[in-house]
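Annual report, structural modelling task.

Input specification for the nicotinamide-adenine-dinucleotide complex:
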Amino acid sequence: MKQQLLDRIENHTAVIGIAGLGYVGLPLAVEFGKAGYRVIGVDVMADKVAKINNKESYIQDVPAEVVAELVEKGRLSATTDYGALAEADTISICVPTPLRKTRDPDMSFIINAADAIAGIVHPGLLIVLESTTYPGTTEEIIVPRVTTGDLEVGKDIFVAFSPERVDPGNPVYQTRNTPKVIGGVTPACLEVAKALYRNAVDTVVPVSSTAAAEMVKLLENTFRAVNIGMVNEMALMCDKLGVDVWEVIEAASTKPFGFMPFYPGPGLGGHCIPIDPLYLSWKLKALNYNARFIELASEINASMPEFVVGRVVDALNDERKALKGSKIIVLGVAYKRDIDDVRESPALDIIHLLAERGVEVSYHDPYVPSIRLEDGGRMESVALTEALLGAADCVVIVTDHRCFDWQWILDNAGLVIDTRNAAKKLAGKARVIKL
Ligand SMILES: NC(=O)c1ccc[n+]([C@@H]2O[C@H](COP(=O)([O-])OP(=O)(O)OC[C@H]3O[C@@H](n4cnc5c(N)ncnc54)[C@H](O)[C@@H]3O)[C@@H](O)[C@H]2O)c1
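The model returned the following structure:
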């Protein structure tokens, strides 16, 4: 089975299945399509499936022309029916791994995908889990579900874990040139998974087990969450000391070794950094171990929206104004610059905190036409005009999209709370208060 699969991968007759066509799955599907494979994508959302088959893209980093070309050449198709994967030689699982309301891992998407794959599993199939998850998932959740009948892993079917590292909006590093870590359940599993991914990414980094590969991703994202938490706490401490944290980081960054700058901000956002470390701490709880760095970083990072609102209260107070009834514009709601993703964005918390305190809050974000509010309602992005900025009691910069004209904003606003150091050393009419 192994040699047969390796041959099909090598001569590009292998059919590639992708389960979950989101920020991770669609770019991966496109990369395999570009490498010359026939790719079948499965997603539970019929509108995404229809868009792909209609030659459209809904992911910013994937141009519609590329989708169109692959669909026309018969190298990419999408469906909601897992039955279509019966002819697949490989399946990469790229489904969401969010948290439940209780902040515990929500494994339901991985379980549903594995159960659906169990219905079409056949000898010679390679299954690779890409979703970020706690160490042990591939062996504990995927393997028992797909080893139906007398299929043996490493002999009849192959199972691996390969964490996805895609950084949406990154103009330099995308799926192809970001090295890919892979761990197999057995050496044979690793061998076929490496052979497959070598076709879609330039560099493959093998590790000795699926648990090691799962842990690599959690190390990377915990590293970011903890360092951002640390620098956010630096910002809180600098505030108490009356020191400009941005100046401190800039000067510290001149050290040519042993220092790596991280920047404070209004809080953590996105589907990864605020969530992934909690998968690890949850798993460790079951082993009677308290992941202290993770818990502390989460607590500090989660407190930042409230800190920003406190900044607004103080700044308005200086002008003898109350928060209640004030007009506040939030600039940028995406969780980071130049992208359209608002998942876990701190802007949503800030808007909620301001609205529940009686602020007339609105937002402008050229990437995000509307957002869903906590009460289920929707808010539309307003046009950014001189009149809007002039009428606002306060403008809060939450996301520093590169397209914003900071000088023009500072020339037309009265009071600006700058949570990203976007204004840097610019001066205008506005009184600017940094985080
Ligand atoms: N977005 C990122 O920047 C990023 C980066 C690295 C890793 N990851 C990880 O990759 C995984 C996927 O993230 P994403 O951002 O692509 O999520 P996403 O929500 O953009 O996409 C997931 C897709 O899976 C579909 N889906 C849900 N259940 C399904 C099922 N049972 N079968 C088939 N499709 C199903 C959803 O409809 C959705 O289209 C997560 O584990 C995430 O942590 C994401």
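The chain has two domains: 2-217, 276-434.
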